[in-house]
């Protein structure tokens, strides 16, 4: 299996021999895997240090080139692949947008204009992706690509720190489902990394903010009062918003919200604006067209960057089939083309403030991070909604997330710092609601989103049929009212329900999230006053599903939907 | 991350105190006398380095895990506490009891602290809670602390389901016993 190949390679090449001689150091690296760029940082004993590659870069382009026999992420190479190479079809990038997504996902469909091959069959399984190697499309998976890249990052960190590294804290988008978390963990395992924590990106920025506030206090410059910050993070792939309240080194994440919208969507919108038949142009994936699409992509990307500083920009590209794109793009036009994106950002911020039960007046600082935070419209939008003139200044927009991840790594390992700069605690919140299917296809949340972690909640359900002896517990994650809109995490049956008329038996479903964000579902039959021995409860760690969960969900509903359905108990009746 | 599996599935098998707190007390043999005092007015611990604090708080956590009482007791504040005091108490307890700080600790304790904070920091919920505790104290007085009445009058919080009370068995049984005592105190206040 290809997956094993990488684990073995990492063990023998990098850590295998060292492991026998020296014990693993108490060390964890923080990794920010960006859709477009990655970075690695570590707590060096006194402060966080961002590691540089051989080309002296702190931010490295995220891609894996499959052109040669040995796939390469270009982290430690003397000369980097240039963007034209990366867009030649031979490299896979945007892994973070693809990992753990099904072929029915909008984001996967939108990625089909990328130079490498993506095929979808719309049946709820992993999409097929492939890179061009010697004129042949060679299949791979997002996990494998990410693993190869992570292995290079790990190698780079080991070179720097001169010791083997095992532990890592990774930042992830808020909107990632728990299923996507398992895919990231899988990729890390393939690269020989043990995941200490997966941190939603804005919460890692919140940790850095909390540390800075503590430092101000130590220098007698802070007030010691609670400070509330809104963190807006928009990179190439995702947009996240968080509200954090921090005092005395304790940060409470009040609300978290995110969606898969980012610079890539902005780029695609502009591409579509310049070339209305973009989809059909990219459909056949011929080498000439890939090449000219690459040129157009580079030119457009460049234009968008220039629009962050100027009012208009000229784009001039010759495409393969004789089409010529030559025109001027100005700021109002750019904003109109991306109206939907900005609207989504606006809604996220409004909803997040609502969820946090706060208004703009309660916000002390607005923190803008991520590559898209340079876009003038985004800046004015976020600051406007929070009624602020200027964003918070002491945070580097592209390095904040990895900085926080490195801090969390040191904290999670229990490293103490004499100056107290690691004396921090983040009380995390759940970004998505967790619940089960009941009353037909209704999603009944048990742990609502923005619940403080660790959390434990229980809801009692009842049977939907007379003499029903079994019930299906199908666990979903998401905000949709119907289960079909949410992610299926796993399922099992509660059996041995004493036969009775419907609505009599009580089936308890309890969800437990521990401090490390591990979800367990416990379910079983309750029988108030009953003397009959009941079967033991069932405890399941979720998610249990591998790929194809969309398919599974449909099959479950079709086969067992009615017979094993659960019903909710009206609020009044609940004891 | 390995957490101790949850063994407390049967609602009625509630242990007097959680496994964790027993271990903590046993291993540290530190049933400190001021732990009982600590219930209502825990002395503000001086800032300790993280590792030191770990041990100290593990010992301190034991008695209050066994204790139930009102949500005010959980946060170690008086019933007249201001919003700011509630927040400060919550932060202080989070720093001592959060499983990220007390490594390997059960999450029950923090979940209770957070639930108390969530109710008391919301003015509406707090008012409702205060009303229901005063109602329940009347009921308890009437029923002369009969076990049944105590159970009925007990905590108004929605998550008082048989399962969750057992899953946080650390406080199920004792809280009933104590709610009687606390009721008496509340009466005194009034």
Largest sheet report of chain A: 6 strands, mixed
- The CATH superfamily label of the domain at 2-198 in chain A reads ATPase, nucleotide binding domain
What is the H/E order of chain B? HHHHHHHHHH
Helix content of chain A: 25-40%
CATH architecture field of chain B: Orthogonal Bundle
- Multimerization state: heterodimer
Structural class of chain B: mainly alpha
Compute the number of helices of chain B: 10
Distance between the termini of chain A: 53 Å
Helix percentage of chain B: 55-70%
Number of domains of chain B: 1
Q: Report mean pLDDT of chain A, rounded to a whole number.
A: 90
Percent of sequence in beta strands of chain A: 25-35%
CATH topology of chain B: Helix Hairpins
Major sheet of chain B: size, sense and barrel closure?
Answer: none
Low-confidence stretches of chain A: 1-20
Arithmetic mean pLDDT of chain B? 56
CATH fold-level label of the domain at 2-198 in chain A: Nucleotidyltransferase, domain 5
Low-confidence segments of chain B, given as residue ranges, are 1-67, 144-190
How would you characterize this protein structure?
Chain B: This is Chaperone protein dnaJ 11, chloroplastic. Chain B: Residues 163-178 have a biased composition (Low complexity). Chain B: Residues 70-133 form the J domain. The complex is a heterodimer of chains A (575) and B (190). Chain A is of the alpha+beta class. Among the domains of chain A are: 2-198, Nucleotidyltransferase, domain 5 (2-Layer Sandwich); 434-573, Sandwich (Substrate Binding Domain Of DNAk, Chain A, domain 1), CATH 2.60.34.10. Chain A is 32% helix and 28% strand. In chain A, strands 1, 2, 3, 4, 10 and 11 form a 6-stranded mixed β-sheet that branches. In chain A, strands 17-12-13-14-18 form a 5-stranded mixed β-sheet, sandwiched between helices. In chain A, helix 6 (178-190) links the parallel strand 10 (167-172) and strand 11. Chain B has 190 residues and is mainly alpha-helical. Chain B has a single domain (19-189), classed as Helix Hairpins (Orthogonal Bundle). Chain B is built from 10 helices and no strands. Chain B is globular and about 40 Å long. The model of chain B is unreliable at 1-67 and 144-190 (pLDDT under 50).
